Amino acid sequence: MIRPSRVLYVCLVLPLAVLVTFLIADPAFRHLETALDVHLIRALGVERIPWMSGSVALLVPQNHPAFHIVVTASCSSLSAVLALVALGLVLPTGPLPRRLAVALGAAAVIFVGNVVRIDSCILVGLAVGRASLVLFHNWVGSIFSFCYVLGGFLIMLAMSQLPAPHLELPQTPVLGRGTPRGLITKSGQGSAPRAHPNIGRITSP
Questions:
Q1: Distance between CA atoms of residues 43 and 37, nearest Å
Q2: What is the structure's pLDDT at 202?
Q3: Contact status, residue 63 vs residue 72, Cβ threshold 8 Å
Q4: CB–CB of 187/195 below 8 Å?
Q5: What gap in Å lies between CA 11 and CA 200, rounded to an integer?
Q6: What tens digit of pLDDT does each residue of 88-102 get?
Q7: Which of 61, 59, 66 is nearest to 34 (CA)?
Q8: Mean pLDDT of 176-196
Q9: For the chain, what is the HEC assignment?
């Protein structure tokens, strides 16, 4: 039987905590994603993003007019990351630290996938202009977003089903209490000491 406290936690407390975390962390998280995307593009040798502030960046294509891009809340991966972590916390199998580690690992897949998606959109925009960036973002980017979110969720489920590692301690013999010089076996029963073969034998003079 499901306890009322768990129902309250799953239906009210956890969604409210996810919502508050999203509202607080969203601006800084979008800034982080934008900075990471721009630095990765520049690391590839593309120097056509001369300006960036917060979640806004200026793109200067070679044969098209310059334009700004904005990483909005719907473009960010924060909502998917928080949702996946929340699902990991309520998984029915495994201890809480293991479930949280599995959820964070799957969330990392979503974060990296979203960075690749945004960088792909930026490269398309730098190559063929703003209209092509919007078209790529709305169609190919959306399909790619669905794939990496679903992939992260499936990875989390698969990892949660793996057996937890455990160490088997070696069995050490212990002197049995109540059995003279007996040994406690794995079954918990003591083994009686062996009698000397000469004990009790009557010898003739």
A1: 10
A2: 47
A3: no
A4: no
A5: 78
A6: 888 777 777 888 888
A7: 59
A8: 50
A9: CCCHHHHHHHHHHHHHHHHHHHHHHHHHHHHHHHHHHHHHHHHCCCCCCCEEECCEEEECCCCCCCEEEECCCCCCCHHHHHHHHHHHHCCCCCCHHHHHHHHHHHHHHHHHHHHHHHHHHHHHHHHHCHHHHHHHHHCHHHHHHHHHHHHHHHHHHHHHCCCCCCCCCCCCCCECCCCCCCEECCCCCEECCCCCCCCCCCCCC
pLDDT at 36 over 90: yes
**Angle, helix 96-128 to helix 130-138, in steps of 10 degrees:** 150
**44 or 159, higher pLDDT:** 44
Dihedral (CA of 153, 154, 160, 165) sign: negative
| pLDDT higher than threshold 70 for residue 62 | yes
